[in-house]
Design a protein that fits this description.
The protein is of the alpha+beta class. The chain is 36% helix and 25% strand. It is built from five helices and seven strands. Helix 2 packs antiparallel against helix 5. The protein is globular, with a radius of gyration of 18 Å. 31% of the residues are buried.
């Protein structure tokens, strides 16, 4: 005898499997839980967004941080206003850089950006990934500090 809740449970399991299959995937050997926790400890706040994509294809492989910050248009300190993901796509495979400036969202608020290739530890396979990390607000870290901290988080996760 099939119970109605069993059918619903099977449908939910199928839907979850489908969503997981379509969601971005980190490279094999990278611990997503450790990455999320390390980024949270290093630069985490509601004003943080970190996105990682394959440098060759631009395919997003990971997004972490506050949805609002990831979707917000923020200044890049050179007159351009954009989102973290758009800035990532514009900088695939380019050298690392970092910058900070006033964000203009409120008096005293700043924005800090770090962009570059995801570093690969000694003896690890090259992954050819690019990242963008951004913080915005009263307590946003400068871009260089964001770069140092996010790259430490990458190393802890297995990059």
């Amino acid at each position: 005898m099939t119970r109605p809740w069993m059918k619903n449970g099977a449908l939910v399991a199928l839907a979850m499997a489908g969503l997981t299959a379509c969601s971005p995937k980190l490279p094999e050997g990278i611990d997503e839980t450790v990455l999320a926790q390390s980024i949270g400890r290093q630069i985490g706040s509601g004003s943080t967004c970190v996105v990682i994509a394959e440098a060759a294809s631009g395919k997003l492989v990971w997004r972490g941080g506050g949805y609002v910050t990831c979707a917000r248009d923020l200044p890049t300190c050179d007159g351009v206003i954009t989102t973290a993901e758009k800035l990532l796509q514009a900088n695939l495979g380019k050298p690392a850089r970092f910058f900070s400036c006033e964000s203009g969202s409120a008096p005293g608020n700043t924005v800090g950006w770090a962009i570059g290739p995801v570093p690969t530890g000694a003896g690890k396979p090259a992954r050819n990934l690019t990242y963008v990390a951004v913080m915005e607000g009263e307590r946003a870290l400068p871009g260089l500090e964001i770069k140092d901290r996010v790259e430490q988080a990458f190393a802890k996760a297995g990059f």
